[in-house]
Design brief:
four-stranded mixed beta sheet, 2 domains, mainly beta, 2 helices, about 250 residues, eight-stranded antiparallel β-barrel, Lipocalin, Immunoglobulin-like, about 15% helix
């Protein structure tokens, strides 16, 4: 009996398998399937970045780099888990998706969710705003006493305080040219700022908030308490009084 080599049998079967595979692949790439993928595609909404770093006292805007409704145009809206939208310091243009912020935007981080919606789909795009302070010159002074009993508007303007970009501090006394002070500063959570400076061998610790003061026509101020000691957490021990410095 003549033996038929196994390879002689498998070779045509393998060739038939390849032909069937190629035919199936062509069918998958056909026009109707591709059109179906397009019809199933949802709304596309993209902004340049998911993290937007802004500078205190500087206004600006952010526009989406791509909006594609894939047919039916819908609506755009904005929301936040914080109360930042209630202040009107962030405004949203519903027609274009542009986000505007004013110079009165407070320090800190604020999450925004932009929602694009039509009858077929809805998508959310999340953006985190981080508004930081980098440097500034302030005029103001100190008043000894119980901080809760001191009216900040009555604190005399006697000093010039500079918070430099490298987080160093310098201070002058307008009435005393011989006075000098130097130190460091840092931003804490939200609008909080900590300052410490040394003058004539004595160190003073200041802790307050940088915000827009309503009674000084929305002028930025650093308002807080001061003392000669602080604890491990940075809180002032035995506060000696209150300070107020206005953005100059």
């Amino acid at each position: 009996m003549k033996t038929i080599p196994i390879l002689s049998i498998l070779r045509p079967c393998f060739g038939l398998f390849i032909c069937i595979f190629l035919i199936q692949s062509c069918n998958k790439d056909d026009g109707p399937s591709q059109n179906g993928a397009n019809e199933e595609m949802g709304i596309l909404l993209r902004y340049p970045d998911s993290l937007v770093e802004t500078i205190f006292e500087k206004q600006g805007s952010l526009a989406p780099i791509e909006i594609d409704w894939y047919g039916e145009k819908g609506t755009l809206s904005i929301s936040s888990t914080t109360t930042i939208l209630e202040s009107n310091n962030i405004k949203f243009e519903e027609e274009t998706g542009i986000i505007f912020w004013s110079r009165l935007l407070p320090l800190g981080e604020f999450d925004l969710t932009i929602t694009a919606k039509n009858s077929k789909d809805a998508v959310d795009t999340n953006i985190l705003f981080s508004n930081r302070f980098d440097q500034g010159y302030f005029s103001g002074g100190f008043e000894a006493g119980n901080p809760t009993e001191i009216d900040p508007t009555t604190i005399p303007v006697e000093y010039g305080l500079t918070l430099h970009e490298d987080h160093t501090v310098s201070m002058i006394n307008y009435a005393d040219p011989a006075f000098s002070a130097s130190g460091t500063w840092e931003t804490l959570e939200g609008p909080n700022i900590a300052i410490e400076y040394t003058s004539n061998g004595e160190t003073t610790y200041m802790k307050g908030q940088l915000y827009h003061y309503d009674e000084l026509p929305n002028l930025p101020v650093i308002d807080g308490v001061y003392g000669a000691e602080k604890d491990a957490s940075g809180e002032i021990i035995a506060t000696e009084g209150r300070f107020l410095f206005e953005w100059d």
